Predict the structure of Imidazolonepropionase.
Amino acid sequence: MMLNCDSLWLGANLVTLRNGCYHIIEDGALAVNAGRIVWLGAHADMPEIHAERVTHFGGGIITPGLIDCHTHLVFGGNRSHEFEQRLNGASYADIAAQGGGILSTVNATRQADHDSLLHSALARLRPLLSEGVTTIEIKSGYGLDVAAELKMLRVIRALAQQQPVHVVSTCLAAHAIPPEYRGQPDAWIEQACQSLLPAVAQEHLADAVDAFCEHLAFSPQHVERLFTAAQALGLPVKLHAEQLSSLHGSELAARFQALSADHLEYATEQDVAAMAAAGTVAVLLPGAYYLLRETQCPPVELFRRYGVPMAIASDCNPGTSPALSLRLMLNMACTLFRFTPEEALAGVTLHAARALGLQDSHGSLEVGKVADFVHWPLAHPAELVYWLGGQLPCTTIFRGEPR
Ligand SMILES: [Zn+2]
């Protein structure tokens, strides 16, 4: 029987990432209809297919589109000045005393209007897209009052209208204690639960709710209150946990069936076991580890032993990871955390999709999934992880159409 479809892609090896492994199909064929993959396999095994458009690559590999599953891409200003001050000898305390640190980004974000936030975020989004990113998660969390958080979330939603990329929006109202609530984080959490989250749900401005569980931010009790409110509104949760100390936030996240727990340098075996039982993804962020010159590695061997899927993300943010390349994070995950290149690639495809709840539609080359994929003129996928920085040529297909 003849299969009719919109486009057929030939002449490259398919790196499918099915089950999080390379699963390479040599000399593959991939057929797309209505933005979905309708057939893939070896060209030699292809049934009769009639396609409106046929593309022959003449070599190279095709991977799933890359997924950056943890970013803070939308913010006002930047902190390059503080970066320079620190390297000139200023301490964190000096910088904080001058109104620096995260609160300087909060001030700049509150002062910026919708269009200027959109404009500056687009400038950071473009380099990520140019290296094959087809899905990106972006968090709020620099507004820290109801109006400014809603403004950030609307900018995140607007980005998806500006560029051919799938944008997942996360409300991170519990990122830092707002200056107006210093010494009374409970009151901000109540405000977030009673005013912000209902407004977010009403306007469909977020796909998930996140928090920063740490001594210098919010306690497990605050997170529990916020997560309970989020789930009552039907919003899934995720958590910044165990970055600087062990508070068992990741175990708490697992109790709420969190999509992911992120950072995890100080996660214990008890946390890892709870995450495994709940299906919570470990999102590891080598850019922040690198910039903060951390020495405590996340427990990669424990995640492997318990079968916790590991994702990698840029964590693009103005303070601890001003990263504009997801591919550089692949190399860092291997060099700093001892990932294998295959694990790293799974960490920005299938497991990153799972961290966003998109594992049934994104993250691997499989029939029925969205046709987001990238052609690279490379012989082997390990090269994506091996080259340090720079720009590799690639052709990105988003929802079946060349971008
Ligand atoms: Zn983050």
Observations:
- The pocket of zinc ion is lined by residues 70, 72, 240, 315 (CB under 6 Å).
- The chain has a mean pLDDT of 96.
